[in-house]
Amino acid sequence: SMTKFYHSHVHPLKNAPALRTFQEWLAAGAKFVQITAGGSVYMLLLLSGLGLQSVAGRVHGLVHSDVATMLRSPQTAEPGMLTSFHIPNLLISTLRLPLLIKIGGTLLDCTSFKESDHVFGGLKTLELQLPPRSSSAWQSCSPVFSEDSQYISISKTVSTYLNLSAAGTAFSPQPSQSADICACPTLPDPMPLEVTIIKTGYSHFHTLNTCFPARHNWQENVTWTNLYHEKAKQGRSVQSVLGLCKLLQDFYPNGYKASEDAYVHIPMSAIEGALELQNDDSSLMAFICMAMPKGMKDLLFPSLIACLDGLDLFTAQPSSLPAGENTPPPFDCLHFSWYNRYTTKGNDAPSNVHPYELWLGNSRTNMWQMLPYPSRDMAECRQLFDRLTEAFRDVFVWIGSMLQVHLPEAEYEALAQAAESLPGNAVSAVEPFISLVVNINI
Question: Among candidates 116, 94, 96, 153, which has minimal Cα distance to 40?
Answer without folding.
Answer: 116
